């Protein structure tokens, strides 16, 4: 580390160290050493301590069908039992499980006892409809108590849920229903976000007007906005009607630890999103374990993870982790900027939030907003309840880290910069708040037990100080089990032959510091973009663009963006003449809307440029590196001698 970097090491405060479960680096190192000595014993100890098993496991890690690893395979449990009944039985029935705040600021509290009853009633309703163990259920709901209830109810009866983010289009929803072969869909009439009322049911109707309807026989609709919706006789049911009169109890379905708890679709480097399949036992173990070690969750904490349940962060740190630890958490329906950009801080103050977990993109937008509107700055609020801050989803730039540390955390609260992925299920590389000295922009060191490393193209370790490919050397309990319906793609994507099938390939580049061995993530090494912490495949956006009648060809790249981390830039060749001026602006808007409709607003290119062709090599390969330079507005420095048609570079600089 250079002396300049050395100056920027932040030690956790003496108070953070003294109260933390993992107190000091010695304690962290002792956990790592325990895992080194006896890898299976380390995970088995935690699995026994943190989860309640119906049938105790006798096997820990089964590598016989690698890379299709199994954990605790002969043990049985129920995830919903572990999240709800267990807390009620130990006397926490009256404890608040969820503090829900709606978009318009109404607050509702749900105790563990209430939540259990509501989950049981809903689980009974699903069973009455014939939904059974192993069936897939799609959940297309806004942030709501009912969203958590729907997920927990599926877990209770052993149905595998697949939550689709409420911002995804009918087309994206349809693909997921079909790929999963879902038997039921849970949605709502609509949603409120930032004072606006948005539809959901009508989008679901459009998705079901297709082959998706073949498998999906039941649609359950939450009444949220009161908007008029079309209810299809025999298929559609109001949620409040189907739960009415259901018994308050529901015998959990005891499932094997490997039973698929959920499938969550995420973008990869090819056009089709991947259904990442997670287990029950191993997944819940690391959800609970990271709540305890990374967030040091204690009984009196108020935990708030701002992620939507449509993303993995909302699975592990809203729907499962906090409940598995019997914590009180916030579920927030709205957006950080409504009714003003002080919303998050006002809520932290009012609900006395002690652990706050959000994305760098939100932090960056709130920095900007509080510069423009000083009344909404975090320093205007009483944030003294906070003790730990977290970030996730993309690299955090040191300036944003420092602002978060000083202005939100008052210089007292450790920040855990947690690196992980949909596929990893839980935190993989992160500081522990009472142990790890922090360096802004670095996710620091592996979670105890996780064997993260950096290698070259041959799979050989690279020395610290040199960049390379981020891998994980040993299977871990909450890892992805397969890609739903495509085991071959799973193996090729994550355990490629280049590494003899032995290393988990994360898809990120990283570097370790020469002295501290701290990890810093340098970004994706595949064709995946990270826009506001959301993963988007460039091919997925390209396929959406070429699905438009007038588009002949499209290439999509990322460009660094101050607010969203990366922004989407599309280079498009139309079938007709290349538009310029006003015609080009019109076409840009039309194509942005088109992509919004095909995938969802988050996939809309920020910038679209038209050319008569794309820069290609003589063998016809699109030169993406060149496009990245053009997207940034940089002068082309690289060799263009292999380029078939150098003249089009000028066209692609802008729509002049
Ligand atoms: C990708 C995974 C994990 C939940 C949210 C995103 C990037 C994630 C960090 C971090 C730098 C990060 C990586 C990763 N990423 N956390 N702390 N620092 N980059 O889940 O959609 O599966 O995306 O997000 O590129 O591969 P995801």
Automatic annotation (TrEMBL):
Record carries keyword DNA repair: no
Record PROSITE patterns: AMP_BINDING
Binding, Mg(2+): 546, 548, 551
UniProt PTM: Acetylated. Deacetylation by the SIR2-homolog deacetylase activates the enzyme.
UniProt keyword Transmembrane present: no
Modification N6-acetyllysine occurs at: 621
Acetyl-coenzyme A synthetase N-terminal domain ranges (all copies): 28-83
A Gene Ontology cellular-component term: cytosol
Function: Catalyzes the conversion of acetate into acetyl-CoA (AcCoA), an essential intermediate at the junction of anabolic and catabolic pathways. AcsA undergoes a two-step reaction. In the first half reaction, AcsA combines acetate with ATP to form acetyl-adenylate (AcAMP) intermediate. In the second half reaction, it can then transfer the acetyl group from AcAMP to the sulfhydryl group of CoA, forming the product AcCoA.
Protein's recorded name: Acetyl-coenzyme A synthetase
Organism, as annotated: Pseudazoarcus pumilus
Lineage, top ranks: Bacteria, Pseudomonadati, Pseudomonadota, Betaproteobacteria, Rhodocyclales
Originating gene: acs
């Amino acid at each position: 580390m250079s002396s300049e970097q050395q100056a920027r090491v932040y030690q956790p405060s003496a108070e953070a160290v003294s109260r933390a479960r993992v107190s000091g680096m010695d304690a962290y190192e002792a956990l790592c050493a325990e895992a080194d000595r006896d890898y299976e014993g380390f995970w088995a100890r935690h699995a026994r301590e943190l989860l309640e098993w119906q049938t105790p496991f006798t096997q820990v890690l089964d590598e016989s069908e690698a890379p299709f690893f199994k954990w605790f395979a002969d043990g049985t449990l129920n995830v919903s039992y572990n999240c709800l009944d267990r807390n009620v039985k130990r006397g926490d029935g009256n404890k608040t499980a969820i503090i829900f705040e709606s978009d318009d600021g109404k607050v509702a509290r749900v105790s563990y006892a209430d939540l259990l009853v509501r989950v049981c009633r809903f689980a009974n309703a699903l069973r009455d409809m014939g939904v059974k163990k192993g069936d897939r259920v799609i959940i297309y709901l806004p942030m709501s108590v009912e969203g958590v209830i729907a997920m927990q109810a599926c877990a209770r009866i052993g149905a595998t849920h697949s939550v689709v983010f409420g911002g995804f289009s009918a087309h994206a929803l349809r693909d997921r229903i079909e790929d999963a072969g879902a038997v039921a869909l849970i949605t709502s009439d609509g949603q409120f976000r930032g004072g606006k009322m948005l539809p959901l049911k009508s989008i679901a109707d459009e998705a079901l007007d297709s082959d998706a309807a073949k498998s999906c026989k039941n649609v359950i609709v939450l009444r949220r906005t009161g908007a008029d919706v079309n209810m299809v006789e025999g298929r559609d049911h109001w949620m409040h009607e189907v739960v009415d009169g259901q018994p308050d109890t529901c015998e959990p379905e005891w499932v094997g630890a490997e039973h698929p708890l959920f499938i969550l679709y995420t973008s990869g480097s090819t056009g089709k999103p991947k259904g990442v399949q997670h287990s029950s036992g191993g997944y819940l173990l690391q959800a609970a374990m990271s709540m305890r070690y990374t967030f040091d969750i204690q009984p009196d904490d108020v935990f708030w993870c701002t992620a939507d349940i449509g993303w993995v962060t909302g699975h592990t740190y809203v729907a499962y982790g906090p409940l598995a630890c019997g914590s009180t958490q916030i579920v927030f329906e709205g957006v950080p900027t409504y009714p003003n950009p002080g919303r998050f801080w006002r809520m932290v103050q009012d609900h006395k939030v002690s652990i706050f977990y959000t994305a760098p993109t939100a932090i960056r937008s709130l920095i900007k907003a509080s510069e423009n509107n000083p009344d909404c700055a975090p320093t205007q609020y009483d944030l003294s309840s906070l003790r730990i801050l977290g970030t996730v989803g993309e690299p955090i730039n040191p300036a944003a880290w420092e602002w978060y540390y000083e202005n939100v955390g008052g210089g007292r609260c450790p920040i855990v910069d947690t690196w992980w992925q949909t596929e990893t299920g839980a935190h993989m590389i992160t500081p522990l708040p009472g142990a790890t000295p922090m360096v802004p922009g670095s996710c620091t060191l592996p979670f105890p037990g996780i064997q993260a490393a950096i290698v070259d193209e041959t799979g050989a370790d690279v020395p610290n100080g040199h960049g390379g490919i981020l891998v994980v050397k040993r299977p871990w309990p909450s890892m992805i089990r397969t890609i739903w319906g495509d085991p071959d793609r799973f193996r090729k994507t994550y355990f490629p032959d280049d590494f003899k099938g032995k290393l988990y390939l994360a898809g990120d580049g990283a570097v370790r510091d020469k002295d501290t061995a701290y990890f810093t993530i340098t970004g994706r090494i595949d064709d995946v973009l990270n826009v506001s912490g959301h993963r988007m495949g460039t091919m997925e956006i390209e396929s959406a663009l070429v699905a438009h009648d007038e588009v002949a060809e499209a290439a999509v790249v990322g460009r660094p963006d101050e607010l969203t981390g990366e922004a989407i830039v599309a280079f498009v060749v139309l079938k007709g003449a290349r538009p310029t001026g006003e015609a080009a602006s019109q076409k840009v808007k039309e194509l942005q809307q088109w992509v919004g409709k095909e995938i969802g607003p988050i996939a809309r290119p920020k910038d679209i440029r038209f050319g008569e062709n794309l820069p290609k090599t003589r063998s016809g390969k699109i030169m993406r590196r060149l496009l990245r330079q053009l997207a940034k507005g940089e002068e082309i420095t690289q060799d263009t001698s292999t380029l078939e048609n150098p003249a089009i570079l000028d066209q692609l600089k802008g729509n002049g």
